[in-house]
Each structure stands twice: as C-alpha cells, then as structure tokens.
Amino acid sequence: MKQNGLNRTEKKAAAALASIFGLRMLGLFLIMPVLAIYGQTYPDYSPFLVGIAIGAYGLTQAFLQIPMGWLSDRIGRRPVILAGLAIFAIGSVVAALADTMQGVIIGRVLQGAGAIAGAVLALAADSAREEQRPKVMAVIGMGIGLSFVLALIIAPLLGGVIGMSGLFWLTAALAVGGILLMWRGMPETYQQVPSRDVLPVPKELGRLLKNMQLQRLNSGVFVLHLVLTAWFVTLPLQLVDAGLAGEHHSWLYLPTLLLSFAVMIPMMIVLLRKKKQVLGMRIAMLMLIVSLSAIAVFEGQLWGLVLSVWVFFIGFNYLEASFPALLTQHAPAGSKGSASGLYTTCQFFGAFVGGVAGGFLFQIAGAFGVMLFCVALLVCWLLFSIGLQQVSATTRLNFVTRTLTPSEARELTNALTKAPGIEEAIVIPDEGATYLKIKKDEYDATAINGIVARFQ
Question: Which of 154, 291, 378, 423 sits in a 20 to 30 Å window from 358, CA-based?
C-alpha cells in the first residue's frame, strides 16, 4: 500500500536537518538586532565596522555555497555538513574571544565559511522519496524562518545580560548541538538523487545568468536581504533614541512579527488562489518602500517606528516565502539545483553588501542616508520587476532511462515535448536521466510513462 505521508525515517531526517539548519541560522542571526547597541563596548567601535560585522558572514557564504555543494557530491553530504558546522563553531569562538570589532569581523567571516545549505538540502533529498521531498524541504524552510523570528526575540533579552561575548559563546554551543544532532540524530542514507535536483551544475550557470526572468528574482532576493541587513545597522539605535531600551526590543519584535504573519498568510492564500503571485510580490515591495519612507517622516517617534517595523515585516515575510515558489516555476527543467544555487548566492551576497553599505552610509549620512539608499534600491528593483511574468503552476518529474545515444535522446525529447501538459523536457543521455516540467492540470501520466518506458 502506498504511503501518503512521511515515513519514520523521513520524519526523523526532516526533524534533524531542520534543527541543524535552524540552529546554525539562529547563530548567524542572533547578533543582528543587538550589535549596533552592545557593540559600543569595543574600543574600535564605529557604525561602519558594525555594518561589516553584521554582513560579513554573507561574503563567505556567497562565495562558498556552490563549491561546498559540489564538494558534497564528491565526498558525501555528512563530511561537508560536519566540517561546515565545525568551522562555524570555530568562528563563533573567535568572535567570543575578540576584544575588538575587527576580531568580531574575522569570527563572522569564519562563521559564514561553514556554508552547508546546499549539502543540507541535498541530504534532505537523499533521505526522502521523490513524492515526499517537498514536505521535507518545507519543514526545513519553516525551521529557517523560525530561527530568524527567535533571533529577533531572544537576542535583545540575552544581550543585556550576557553581552556580545556571551551571545557568540551561545552560537558556538548551538553549532556543537548541530554537530551532535548530525552525528546521532540523522539516519544513515545511501540513496543519492541526481545533482541537478538540488545542486548546481557548473556548465549550466552561464546559461541561467542570461535568463532575465530568473535574474529579476535573483536581483530581488539580493535587494531584499541588502535592505534588511542595512536597516539593522540603524534600527536598534533608532529604537533606543525613540525611548525603547535595548533589552526591551523583544517586546516590539514579538507582536509586530506575529501581526505581520496574521496579515501576510491570508494575503498569500488569496493571491495564490487567484494566481496573482507576481502582483502580490509588487504589493509587498511597495510595503517595504512605504515602511522605510515613513521612518524619515516619523523620525524619533516610537509609534511611527513600530508601525514601520510591522508593515516592513508583512512585505518581507511575504517575499521571503513566495520567492522560492516563483523560482521553481521559472527555473528550466533539470536546472532547479543550479537556479537555486545562484539564488542563494545572491541572497547571501546581498546581506554582505547591505551590512557594508549600511554601516558606511550611517557613519557619513546618518539613519536618513541609509533609509534613502534602501528606498532608492527598492524603487529600482520594482521597476526592474515589471518584466516578470506570471506563469501557471508547474511541477517536476524525473525519470531514469538507460544510457542513450544522441539520436535516441532527440527522439525521446521530441516525443515528450509533443505530449499534452509538458512545458519542458530535458534529456541527459550520458546520465540516463530525463527531467520534465509539467502543467499539473494537463499532464497525462499514462501517456508519459508509456513514452519513457521505451527507453528504460
């Protein structure tokens, strides 16, 4: 009898990997809400160095994300994940022992060098049956989102008690916890999915860079995380100047985040039903522009900042949740891993640029200069997104075939592309693999299985 839900092994793998990824991301996010305040205890404190320290992890993440994914295909997922967590722990210890901002920056760069996202997602795919993989990926995605929310809530509470050094020791402990979970809690898996499902393929990256639909999404996630990181260089100090003590910032973040989800989730459901995801994206972008513009108007007024934070996180959470689905719809068949690799690289590089730019502008032009810069970028992104197309809901199927000759590959490709519901078909003859991008409502499973069976 076919199981419709996750089996025991898949549940265990999903829980373990979501916890491992979540603990690591919690460690990365913990300093964002508090470094601008408690970093003033370092003798070489400056807004510019604060910005670099907040965003430094993004630089090494951006450069190493794709290579670490490739490496996991060569030597295995577990060694790469364990090594990445160990590097993250070492970076946390370096930052905890640092007595200058420059030392903290070195620690943050090392934290980012433990770039395990690709390897974790690949191991998640290895650990689940094909029809259950989206559920496992969703669990991991929820873990990442929860880690960000928890960081905003607990960092201000702990920062005033244990200081910056204590927060970095906590991140080191979280990394050790991730290593133990990986060592003892993750079930052994021996399946390995084709790298194209979750990992980048080197020869495809250049072709994807020319895909303007994907570039509109990649530029979007770059700007989104740039703006988030740049704002957190200034936001904690703006709240303090408005009369809210640093240790009480949790009481702002908690209700505004909860209220943002209360608006964002119904908004997403309605727009999904109406197949207006691109419209929803533009509405969310306008929310970011309005929220950051309002800060300049209500400068120094706590209620204005609270309202701006709420509207900002409605837009931010909507975009963060909807971008991966849009990416999947626009990624060519057989190139999801490569498209995701470029997307993630842009995301982390945006965090780095945002920290550096936010710190530099805050030092020379104050919070108003940072807000003006962020609003200008968001407007440019909004204009660039005009060409993004709404596409029908699609899904992907993979088939294993025998090793095919070039003529057999062409024959299979032609037969599949003529079948109803097939939006795109990619046949890799030397890999014995066929990748389909299909329209759910028009797909004829019996016909497609019959076509592919002739080549198996």
Answer: 154
